[in-house]
Amino acid sequence: KALEVFGGMKRRGVEPDTVTFNALISAMEKAPGGSQWEKALEVFGGMKRRGVEPDTVTFNALISAMEKAPGGSQWERALEVFEEMERRGVKPDTITFNVLIRALENAPGGSQWEKALEVFG
C-alpha cells in the first residue's frame, strides 16, 4: 500500500524528500508478513539516484529491515549498511547501535558478538 501512495505522489508531481523515503523504507521494514528488506534496499537505491540525502533515520530503518529478515539472514548486509552510513558521515545514534546489535545477535549459526565488539571497539 505504501508503494501505491508513493507512486501516486510521483504521478502528481510531488517530489519525495528524505522524510518521504524514510517513511517508505520504514513501511517495508514493518510490512505484514515480515520485513521486505529487498524492497527497502530498492527504495534506498532510488533515493540515492534522485540525489536525496539519507539521514540517521534512513539508515536505522534499513538496518532494522535487515535485522528483521527471516532467520537473521541479512546480518552481513546490516553491517554493510552501517559501513555506508559511516562513509557518508551520517552520525549513528543509540537506535542504530541497538538494531545493529540485534542483527548480529540473530545471525544464523550463532551470535556474531565478535563483530559487534569490532563495531564498538
Describe the structure.
The chain is 66% helix and 0% strand. It is an all-alpha fold and 121 residues long. The longest helix is centred in the middle third of the chain and has 13 residues, at 37-49. It is globular and about 50 Å long.
The gist of it:
By secondary structure, the protein is an all-alpha fold. It has helices spanning 2-11, 18-29, 37-49, 56-67, 75-87, 94-105, 113-120. The protein is globular, with a radius of gyration of 15 Å.
Question: Which key features would you list for this structure?
Answer:
121 residues, mainly alpha
Termini, distance in Å? 41 Å
From the spread of the alpha carbons, the general shape counts as globular
Query: Measured on Cα atoms, how large is the radius of gyration?
Result: 15 Å
- Pick out the low-confidence regions: none
- Residues in helix, %: 55-70%
Give the beta-strand count: 0
How is this fold's topology laid out?
Blueprint: H1 2-11, H2 18-29, H3 37-49, H4 56-67, H5 75-87, H6 94-105, H7 113-120
Helix pairs in contact: 2-3, 2-4, 3-4, 4-5, 4-6, 5-6
